[in-house]
TrEMBL record:
InterPro entries: YtzH
One Pfam family named in its UniProt record: YtzH
Lineage of the species this protein comes from: Bacteria, Bacillati, Bacillota, Bacilli, Bacillales
The protein, known as: YtzH-like protein
Length: 92
């Protein structure tokens, strides 16, 4: 059974929160973020206010996948991780 858009948003926020809390992550998590964002971007139930945030998260995941030091990449985005989760809570 596929995840609904709210479940996808919750999963997205969970991964971002884990990256924020743990200051580390995996390429597989970045790939999961990428898949979630792609799915949410084409979902008509997602408000236009969330889409710029999703684009930023997509860029974050792409840079993480291609980063030679993923933990450093996550640490350098720590402020954004927190802000994205807060913004998604406000807008969704």
């Amino acid at each position: 059974m596929p995840l609904g858009h709210q479940d996808q948003m919750n999963l997205l926020k969970d991964i971002l929160t884990n990256h924020y809390d743990d200051c580390c992550g995996s390429v597989a998590e970045c790939e999961q973020l990428e898949r979630l964002v792609k799915s949410l971007m084409v979902n008509s139930q997602i408000g236009d206010g969330v889409k710029p945030i999703l684009q930023e998260i997509y860029n974050y995941s792409q840079n993480g996948i291609n980063s030679p030091n993923l933990d450093h990449h996550i640490n350098s985005q720590k402020e954004n991780l927190s802000q994205w989760v807060q913004d998604m809570d406000t807008l969704s």
